[in-house]
Structures are given as structure tokens and as C-alpha cells.
Amino acid sequence: MPDTTPDATPDPAPGPAPGSSSDRLPALPVTFRPGRTRAVLLIAAAALFAAISLIALLLPQLSPGERLSFVFTAALLAGVLALLARPRVDADETGITVVNIVTRRRLEWAQILQVNLRPGDPWVFLDLSDGTSLPVLGIQPGIAREHAVADARALRALTVARTTTTGRTSRG
After folding, report:
1. pTM of the prediction?
2. Which of 20, 66, 90, 114 lies in disulfide reach of 97, CB 3.0 to 4.6 Å?
3. 48: Cβ–Cβ under 8 A, 6 or more apart, which residues?
């Protein structure tokens, strides 16, 4: 099985090797998010809401209260899909903000020890200086694996560049 960590690709790509000094860092601020997954979820949310609401309006035997409950249920289901489309990572000069489904966490660059995307991982994990690991649902290889690997590499390069410039020493 090919290795999908941010440091390795199954096929050699033209250009500089990952981690080399000629890697281009994304301009800050930058946002990483699963674009295709987000589009599918938001389109599904809109279609679901429209379909259930239309059914509620077209069924003649429903009372106004029942119609309202159909529309409310459709809005609730669409809201859940919209929450699933929420994950992202916002990176700026001072650190990153990890926005997962219902949580948001701000991290300084020095708090991030490593960015991991191993084969079989559903999303990126950050190893943090407090000894914990933080899932980053904003970078997930579900629909667009190559895009997720590129985003993980970019986040890793930013982390290395920002922690080097802030003078953090490696821990061993």
C-alpha cells in the first residue's frame, strides 16, 4: 500500500522534494478545507431541505402544524449537514485556528510539534507540545486524497518554518 504521509507520495512528482529549502510556503493567511466534501455536503443540505419542504407543501392531507414540523425537520437535517461542512484550518502569522464540527481551538505555532497524515488516517492529526493529539478535520483525504496530502504538506512546511523562526528548540 502506498505511503500517504505528507513526506511521501506514491509517485514522484516533478519539482523540489518535500522539506527542501526551495519549497514554496503558502502566503498567510491561508485556509485549508476539504472543498469537494464541503460542496457535496452543502448541495445535499440544500437539496434535502428543498425536497422535504416541497413534499410538506404538496401533500394536501397535512395540517399546517404537520407542514411546519416537516419544514423544521428538514431545517434540522440540513443544519447537521452544514455542521459537517464546517471543518477548516485557518493559518496566520501567529498560529492556526482548527475548526472542527462543533469545536474551535486556537494554537500558536510553537504548540505544534508535528503534522501527521498516515495511511488510513481519516484526517490530519497534530501532535501538540502538551502531549496530546488534535484531530484536524479540515484536511481529510476522503474525496480528494491528493489535495489533502498537498494541504498536509503545506501545513507541515508552515509549522516547520514558523517554529524555526520563533526559536523553538526541538525536544527529544
Report:
1. 0.75
2. 90
3. 74, 77, 78, 81
How does the average pLDDT of the chain come out, rounded? 85
The string of pLDDT tens digits covering residues 54-67 is 999 999 999 999 99
Q: Which residues does 28 contact at the CB level (< 8 Å), separation at least 6?
A: 91, 92, 93, 158
Per-residue pLDDT tens digits for 35-55: 999 999 999 999 999 999 999
Distance of CA 89 to the CA centre of its chain: 6
d(CA 99, CA 137): 8
Beta strand 112-116 with 104-108 is unpaired
